[in-house]
């Protein structure tokens, strides 16, 4: 069984890299490396279905695979809609300006292939689910359901948070103001909190198949969101652009929702 998992994992790595090379080629034509963000969610959908189709094809596993599909499609469609007509994201523009004529091949390794490998690592619970998820009994039923509850909580926070922020930004009266309403009143990043819950939900659903060892996948996602590509990167920019954001940081939890503190505290 372990050898089969290794074979399936390596095949999945090939799928992830192949997908990212394809997106990279499109980005060269469009001169927009930020296309990688739009395909991020779809990449997990492709991996989930690939591992299910090449695995035991257990009907129960279709539940988490379907949840991955719903999550991934929503994320990719939302990012496509949000960024449509805005050109390349500033992060990639800065990289393009730095590397000039070398950016086309630098982006392959530092943007596309890197994210492909990270995607593959994060998706390890989906490997176990798609390949060997057994019939559930006893405490495994509770674990599977708990994972589904984590996923639902995360999906609601992520989707509702994105929708609330989009409505806030659509109102011209809010230009330059800090979003501190709805879910954003209780956490500065409800969408990132939702993403973390979603991935730990998949891990919980993988436990009946012995997926305990795949915890490094959602752990990597959590670390990246908090320290690398999510909270830290975004907040550095917001503090420079919006003076009110400093007080918002004092009042509001960074990730895990909690009661807001009084202004000026």
Describe this structure in words.
The protein is built from 11 helices and no strands. The protein is mostly helical and 265 residues long. It has 2 domains: 1-133, no CATH class; 141-265, no CATH class. Helix 2 packs antiparallel against helix 3 (62-83). The model has no long low-confidence stretch (mean pLDDT 92).
Jot down its keywords.
265 residues; globular
Regions with little confidence, pLDDT below 50 for 5+ residues: none
Mean pLDDT across residues: 92
N-to-C CA distance: 56 Å
Strand content: under 5%
- Note the overall shape: globular
Q: What percentage of residues falls in helices of 4 or more residues?
A: over 70%
User: Number of DSSP strands?
Assistant: 0
SSE-based structural type = mainly alpha
Question: Please, how many domains?
Answer: 2
Organism: Natronospira proteinivora
Transmembrane segments: 6-26, 38-54, 60-81, 102-128, 140-160, 189-205, 211-234
Pfam family, one: DUF1295
Protein name: Steroid 5-alpha reductase family enzyme
